[in-house]
Peroxisomal membrane protein MPV17
Amino acid sequence: MLLRIIWKKYVDSLDHYPVMTKAFTGAAFGFLGDFLSQYYIEKQVTFNKKRNAVVTSYGFIETIIEGQYWINYLEKVVGKQATIANALLKTVLDLTIFAPLEIILFMAWTNYFEKSPTKLISKIKEDFFFIFANGYAFWIPVNFFCFYVVPMKHRALYLCISSVIWDTFMSFAAHNSVLEKVNNIILSDEKHISK
């Protein structure tokens, strides 16, 4: 019963305040993604509130751009029909145009607002292609399902829920050397196997 009331209020809010509802949804899931990254992936003892505020604010802005404008633009350009061809084309356009820009924007946002000592260009050179490749593995099925099955009105919410996994990964990637961590894991596994 409580979930039904919450869902009704959320849908009403989407009808009356679509941009802000999507923005706050993105912020909430950005918060959750960074929280999971800090505590469960990075195993930090102290919660970094500034970092979380930066990632949360990014979720707020990014969801307006993607959830309100980019997805609507794809609908206008490709069409609203829920066909396999349209879903595939929207997925391809999203992953070739929006995804690379979104990754760079996230890196720039966290780098700038957290005053990272790592130069942005160095971070992009070091981690961009690894993140981008993992993005394809994650987002191809998520986006195809979104564009083929999920009604337009609920796509921002669906993408935000799906993004918890991606936001956790992106938060980890923005605050760590991804390739260095992966190489360390591979080396430790090889040592463990050879024993």
The chain has one domain: 2-194. The mean pLDDT is 89.
